[in-house]
C-alpha cells in the first residue's frame, strides 16, 4: 500500500483583494466586490474537486474545503502532478486577482500523530511565506501590486456578481484553471446545499430587485428599511476557532469540525436570509469556514445577528459538548452602517471588519452595534428597550425630540449633559426630566415607564447617573427606527 500525502491549500491576501474593489464609484465596485467574494468562496471548493476529477480520484479523498482553504488526501505517486496542477491554478489566481491573491500549498506525508503532521504543514507554510517575502524584494518574477494588471472585474461583476445567485451549477476546465464558469465545464458541480457529497454548499441568497432580474443594490435595500433609509454590513467570526482546531488529536476530528462549521454558515445563512422578514432586505456577501458577511437594510441586520447567534449557540451545544473549554463555541459580530446611500460597499465592509476586531479585542461572544460593544444578553435588553422607546413615540404621542433629549444627557466620558453643558449628576434630577418628557402619558403609565426607563437605561449611584451600554444602543436604534 502506497504512502498517503496531505495537501493543504490556503488563499492568501483575501481581505486585501476584497477591499481593493472599492477604489472608485459605488455601483460597479459593489458588483465587483460581490463577484470577488463568490470567486474566493468557490475557489476553495472547486480547486480540490477539480484536482480529484482530473486525476480520476475518488471524491472521498477530499477532507475539507471552503472558507479559503482545503485539505486533500492523495497517494504519494500523485505528488508531482498535484504540485504542477496547483502551481498552474496559483498562476491563474494571481493573474485574475491582479496580484492581490495567492494560493499557498503545503504537502507532507500522512504519517505520525496529527500534532506532528500539523506542525510539518505549518513549517511548510512558513517556508513558503519566507520565500514569498524574499521574492517580493529580490526576484524578477515578483510583480509589485502597484504595477500588477488590473483584476478581471468584468468577469467578477457580470458573471459571478450578477448571475451566480440563480445558477444551478458551476464548471471548471484546465485551459483556464482559475476561472469558474456558471453552467457546464469539463468538470461540473451542482450548487444545491445538502443534496449530496459532491455538490457545493454555498450561501448565495440575494435580495431581488423590484423586477426580480438581478440582486438588489445597496441603495435599493436602503429604501426598503423602516425608519432612516440606510443600509449596512454585518460581519461575524467564531471566537478562537484556531485554538480549538490546534487542540484536536486526529485528522478525522479536524476534518469533521471544519466541515461542520462550514456547513453551519452555508446552510443556516441561506435558510435565515430566505425567511419572510429578511429575504427582500439582506444579501449574503460570503460565508466561510468560521466567518460570514451580509449586507442589507439596516433594520434587518441586528435581528439577523441575534438569530445567527442563537442558532450558533445551539449548534455548539449539540456538536461540541464533548470538547472542554470555550474556544470555538462563541461568536462575535459587528454591524457597520453606510454614512451615505451611495457609499461603496467595500468601504462599509472594511469598517465592519475594523469594528469586529474592536469587539473581539474587548471581549468574546459579543457584538459591536450603533457605537457600542455589547454582550449578547445586553443586546437582548437593548432590543426590548428599543421597542419600548419606539412605542412611546408612536403610541403615546411623544415627540422624537424625547429621544434626542434623553441622548443629550450623555456625553462620551459617561456623564449626562444638556445642550447648554448643564450637568445632571443626581438621579432625582434626571427623574424630574423624565416626568416632563412623559407628561403625555396617564399617571400610572407615566410612573411605570419612568421606573422602567430608569432601571433599564441607567445605573444608579449616589454621585452621578450613567447610561448603560444597552440603553445607549437602544436610544440610537430607536432614533433610527422612528425617523420618517
Pick out its properties:
484 residues, alpha+beta, Alpha-Beta Plaits, 3 domains, 15 helices, globular
Taking pLDDT < 50 over at least 5 consecutive residues as the criterion, the unreliable ranges are 136-148, 411-425, 461-466
Please give the order of strands in the largest beta sheet: 9-10-8-11-12-13
Number of domains: 3
The CATH architecture name of the largest domain reads 2-Layer Sandwich
- N- to C-terminal distance: 72 Å
Oligomeric assembly: single chain
What overall geometry do the principal axes of the alpha carbons give? globular
CATH class of the largest domain: Alpha Beta
Strand residues, percent: 15-25%
CATH topology name of the largest domain, in short, is Alpha-Beta Plaits
Biggest sheet features: 6 strands, mixed
CATH homolog superfamily of the largest domain: Reverse transcriptase/Diguanylate cyclase domain
Please characterize this protein's 3D structure:
The chain is an alpha+beta fold and 484 residues long. It has three domains: 1-153, Reverse transcriptase/Diguanylate cyclase domain (Alpha-Beta Plaits); 203-369, Reverse transcriptase/Diguanylate cyclase domain (Alpha-Beta Plaits, 2-Layer Sandwich); 377-482, no CATH class. It is built from 15 helices and 17 strands. It has a six-stranded mixed beta sheet, with helices on both faces. A four-stranded antiparallel beta sheet has the order 2-3-1-4, sandwiched between helices. β9 and β10 form a beta hairpin. α12 (401-408) runs antiparallel to α15. The protein is globular. It starts with a strand and ends with a helix. The model is unreliable at 136-148, 411-425 and 461-466 (pLDDT under 50).
